[in-house]
Amino acid sequence: MQKVNTAPLSGFMELLPTDQMVFDQIKQVISDVHHANGFLSVDLPLIYREEILLAKAGGDTEKQIYQLQKGDNKLALRFDHTVPLAAYIAENQNDLVFPFKVSNIGKNYRGERSQRGRYREFYQCDCDVIGRGELSIAYDAEVIGVIYEIYKKLNFGEFTLRVSNRKLLNGFLTSLNLQNILAVSHVIDGAEKISEAELIRQFQLLNITKEMIAKIVQFINISGTNSEVLSKLKALEIDNADFVAGLSELETVMDLLAKKGVDNAKIDLMIVRGLDYYTGTVYETILNDYPEIGSISSGGRYDNLTDSYTNERFQGVGASIGLTRLFYVLQENGIVTTERTSPVDVLLVPFSRKQFEYCYILSDTIKNAGKTVDIFLADDKLGKKLSYANKAHVKNVIVVGENEVENGNVMVKNMDNGELSTLDEYLNN
Amino acid sequence: MQKVNTAPLSGFMELLPTDQMVFDQIKQVISDVHHANGFLSVDLPLIYREEILLAKAGGDTEKQIYQLQKGDNKLALRFDHTVPLAAYIAENQNDLVFPFKVSNIGKNYRGERSQRGRYREFYQCDCDVIGRGELSIAYDAEVIGVIYEIYKKLNFGEFTLRVSNRKLLNGFLTSLNLQNILAVSHVIDGAEKISEAELIRQFQLLNITKEMIAKIVQFINISGTNSEVLSKLKALEIDNADFVAGLSELETVMDLLAKKGVDNAKIDLMIVRGLDYYTGTVYETILNDYPEIGSISSGGRYDNLTDSYTNERFQGVGASIGLTRLFYVLQENGIVTTERTSPVDVLLVPFSRKQFEYCYILSDTIKNAGKTVDIFLADDKLGKKLSYANKAHVKNVIVVGENEVENGNVMVKNMDNGELSTLDEYLNN
User: Which residues 156-195 of chain A have a CB within 8 Å of chain B?
Assistant: First the structure.
């Protein structure tokens, strides 16, 4: 009989259980930190009417969207959490309490061109704060602080939170009387990946004068401690409302991050992020030893979140971790190594069915002590049972024969070092 | 400006955060019990080539499937966990350790006719044990035992696990020399929802003689304690291999369940379940006080899980909870009531930005004690800040003004009873 090909689709991550365990542990840390900081979970639909998803999207997004054939409605799979969240807030604005701190962890879909490390099905782990009307700038520091806490807990090595502000950049470019600010911002967004000569060439293509190019290059390279950078920015004495507002916001955000004990946030004026989306604070995150991986978390401030859906105005600020890609690069770079160890603490191996009942009792004792436990219930020979213990890499094994049932003395064998202990000793350690 | 309709699609559950919290708590209990019993998590793709999903499906499933327009492949959304799991096992059979105990919790999609309590996007929470070749009957008791443990922990009231065996039923019907066993089984499957007169009429439509109908009706109504039912079945002295094997399996399963301390498993010969799927043990679960809700968990033994995908033979047994429908009926019947209480333990309310730094420090202390904490960071008047605390139904509030920062004495106000305690008292309780 012809068999169906079972390989997963290109761009879809399928993990073995031991890898899945590591993936899920990272997801759990993210979720725990969200909750610890007062963010409430939502779990929104994956399918929407296409008009909701495309109300604001354009260009690439529209091409990458997965459309569904079903009934009369034109449907599609969500491609991020932001659009569904905006629709949810518009729909439930009278039942939600604002500022609304929301944790949104789930799968999204983009039919991108397939390549290594790019996924078409991917987890986004977002935390956002949404305000009805104005939202305090203090929440910008709040979401960046959440990312700090997450990566401190995950302990993947030293990292840097690179922070900038779109108002500041827009104000600066406006003060130069440039016409094509979006195009210039786009070039700055890619500046890190190209040489300075190429950067200058790209600015020249936009018909920017040499003098102006020099000013832009100087601006995005302003460096020093955060207070030095802020001083240099003030010293520019640019009299533009956006610039002044952006500078003040950036100063506040950096001040609050310092007060929160975030010791690795750096002002970095090369950070731009999504062009038609962010309106104030923007940030990215890099692992200091692996800058080539790119940003492992990013986000920022957005206005008019819901203007396609409601006349009420909502502002938000969010921080996102693309977990599927992150997990891929962590494994590729050996930053997380998947242990082949089973998550199961104890495997009970009864000699025969006669010991099942006793194993059930032991199993309850072990579970009540907060451990996980498996019982090998197949009718195999002892050798085969123990080979399962080895192949599954369980941490501890208890063999239960007639003697054990009679005496009630069972020994826990640590499979790493072969040491034996009584069950009481094991459970009380 | 014309606004886009943001109402969720019919058949898609969208919860407010306080409801979501209850939903997630139930999901967590299910997941915890799976893990405690040695089941390993997988998190498989939602999108597959249509040929994988439809390799075994037919009829209704094919009509209900969500198809995707993307590229050359004909794609579709998964409609259960079983088909993706079968493909995963065929694909990874050399890297998995068998018996493979797997926990599979996630969303599935069926474009069913929309009606109250029916969802097109729904969570299935499955645990399965898959054996390469033969799988011990002891695992049938294992998965039913997991369901017992889950519903004991969830504490929704008394419930009954109704257990039968398809080999037993098939063997019995074969012994009557009936030609159309599948059609007869289908009628038995619906027997509970109709009167005995209607049941008899449906059997008559299948051209079954009065005498035979009487025998079938008598068989499915065999009752008594489990050992009485087993005795009555043995007393039938039916000499059919399926019947004998089914009876032996059922006896073993009931015996092991008793040994596990499962005190509410009842043999019930009306239980049939999916016709072209289960091959041995089948079970359903009802809440004793709400039988009209129908089964809140079901499953059973299936052979040839992977025969569309590989020549290697795998057998399995599984137990499934349809969480989305379950949550709906629990709410409808008042079995779970959504508390309007926020999951946030403590809300810190600073008088002004001057107290932010102190609140950050308090917040770290509270988080380190394992509590969740929110800080109200908007620049509102105190009255408005406290009205947020009320509307969000946070459990405890700490107001932080200049005095508190100076003295370090903060008071925790319990919002339920208005009682005050020091932070130390609160954290050590």
Answer: none
